[in-house]
Design goal:
Elements lengths: L1 H16 L4 H20 L9 E2 L11 E9 L3 E10 H4 L1 E10 L2 H4 L3 H17 L13 E7 L3 E5 L2 E4 L16 H11 L4 E7 L1 H12 L3 E7 L3 E8 L15 E5 L14 H8 L8 H6 L4 H16 L18 H8 L7 H11 L6 H32 L13 E6 L1 H5 L1 H15 L1 H4 L2 E5 L3 H12 L5
Parallel strand pairs: 2-5, 5-8, 9-12, 12-13
Antiparallel strand pairs: 1-11, 2-3, 3-4, 6-7, 9-10, 10-11
Bound molecules: adenosine-5'-diphosphate (ADP) and magnesium ion.
Magnesium ion binds next to loops.
């Protein structure tokens, strides 16, 4: 019928607008490289903040002792205790607890959020067996993974530049997040010192390096997305401090804020951005990361409903609810292998209150998931190509057989199989066979927590 033809035309147009042919991805990679240079050249020189992390030494594996870590960066936060045993024993043990953040605290006050976190940390500490007390009156030490853009002032302090990923707590912007946490810990009588403030990408890089010395970059694909890598300190014109002995400095790119005219942005992305908590910002993140993918699919479906009567004469009201299709729902539908696409049918019934979807309609839904996931995964691969270009590792060098390992983590990468395999195959496509053989993508499972504990150890006040 005419309506079905109209629906197909909408899908086709969407697919075209989301297109990421190799040439376009190379342009995105080149643009990333250019913006990286600009962001390193001067403060505010690029949308890419290229933040200096003050981490100029990554773990060697010699770290020893009992350290804590706190990981805040999405809807959950985690508290960890890691027992490090040095070269011989590695990580002797680790325990963690995950706590979800009540939504009202994500947009409330700084005190509200940090007091909630400090009390969860205190509970975790209180629950541990005797014998965990640090020896001779020493303080417990904590690595704080805080995965929002922070302008570091030292390895253990930094001010919040802005919130992302659905957080919006105005009175915390511009404040030292370690100061805020410390204040809350003191208030409830928790005696602990933050010795390292890092971002999840830096934590993942550090955690990855502990196990594999070839790790040179880390990428997070979770609620949001970001990347960090090891730069030569002499290649950072905006760094006016002393050059570290290592000659290296880890850079937190904040690549979620990357934007380029080469990015394939559709009407749905534009609307999502306009209606977001941070319009005009984190454009790359809004095309790629777990917080947003499901909602892009929802917006495409809503257009099908409104302009092609895809679900009948009126658009189903639930389709108008922002973020009602979460990326895990999308992933489940995308991976549906049942002949009648039962998972899709059930999700539509349970999440959207739309029953009686035909197989033909369900196939369209899967196609939309495919379009959105592929675009995100391919753009993430282009971003990685940009980093490799920046550090001259995008081509195989004759006579060298060293590997470059990129540590990847985050729920999207971990659980969305089609996204992950598409990212991996796209990176190969972009690098070519020879160079691709020198690049390894490694899933660093929860490396960021251990990484923060490792950095807390290497920056301990007692050494
Ligand atoms: P965060 O980024 O909040 O620190 P994670 O790295 O655990 O936390 O990532 C969580 C995100 O990963 C979720 O917001 C969701 O978008 C995505 N995710 C989790 N599970 C799945 C899944 N099964 N399929 C697709 N995406 C998922
Ligand atoms: Mg995380």
């Amino acid at each position: 019928s005419g309506k079905w033809a109209r629906a197909m035309a909408i899908v086709k147009e969407f697919e075209e607008k989301c297109g990421t042919p190799t040439l376009k991805l190379r342009q995105v990679g080149d643009a990333m490289d250019v913006e990286m240079h600009a962001g390193l050249a001067s403060e505010g020189g690029s949308k890419l903040k290229m933040l200096i992390s003050y981490v100029d030494n990554l773990p060697t594996g010699d770290e020893e002792g009992l350290f804590y870590a706190l990981d805040l960066g999405g809807t959950n936060f985690r508290v960890l205790r890691v027992h490090l045993g040095g070269k011989e024993k590695g990580v002797i043990s680790q325990e963690f607890e995950e706590v979800s953040i009540p939504p009202h605290l994500m947009t409330g006050s700084s005190n509200g959020l940090f007091e909630f976190i400090a009390s969860a940390l205190a509970k975790f500490v209180a629950s541990e067996p005797d014998g965990f007390l640090p020896p001779n009156g020493k303080q417990r030490e904590l690595g704080f993974t805080f995965s929002f853009p922070v302008r570091q002032t030292s390895i253990s302090s930094g001010t919040l530049i802005k919130w992302t990923k659905g957080f919006n707590i105005e009175d915390a912007v511009g404040e030292d997040v370690v100061g805020e946490l410390t204040k809350s810990m003191e208030k409830i009588g928790l005696d602990m010192r933050v010795t390292a403030l890092v971002n999840d990408t830096i934590g993942t890089l550090a955690g990855g390096r502990f196990y594999n010395q070839d790790v040179i970059a880390a990428v997070i694909l979770g609620t949001g997305t970001n990347a960090a890598y090891v730069e030569r300190s002499h290649a950072i014109p905006k760094w006016h401090g002393l050059h570290p002995k290592s000659g290296e400095m880890v850079i937190n790119m904040e690549w979620g804020n990357f934007r380029s005219t080469h990015l394939p942005v559709t009407e749905f992305d534009q609307a999502l951005d306009t209606e977001s908590l941070n319009p005009g910002e984190q454009i790359f993140e809004k095309l790629i990361s777990g917080m947003y993918l499901g909602d892009i699919v929802r917006r495409a479906l809503l257009k099908l409903a409104e302009e092609a009567d895809f679900f009948g004469d009126t658009a189903p009201p639930k389709l108008r609810v922002p973020f009602i299709i979460r990326t895990p729902d999308m992933s489940a539908m995308h991976h549906d292998t049942s002949p009648d696409l039962k998972v899709v049918g059930n999700k539509f019934r349970d999440v959207l209150e739309i029953s009686n979807t035909s197989l033909k309609m369900r196939k369209v839904v899967v196609e939309l998931c495919d379009i959105v996931a592929n675009r995100g995964a391919r753009l993430a691969a282009a971003g990685i190509l940009g980093i490799l270009k920046k550090i001259g590792r995008d081509t195989a060098k004759a006579g060298e057989n060293s590997k470059s390992v990129i540590a990847l983590d985050g729920g999207l990468f971990e659980h969305y199989t089609k996204f992950r395999t598409c990212l991996e195959s796209t990176l190969k496509e972009l690098l070519g066979d020879e160079a691709a053989d020198t690049i390894v993508i490694e899933h660093s499972n929860d490396g960021s927590g251990i990484g923060a504990a490792l950095l807390a150890a290497s920056h301990s006040q007692y050494f």
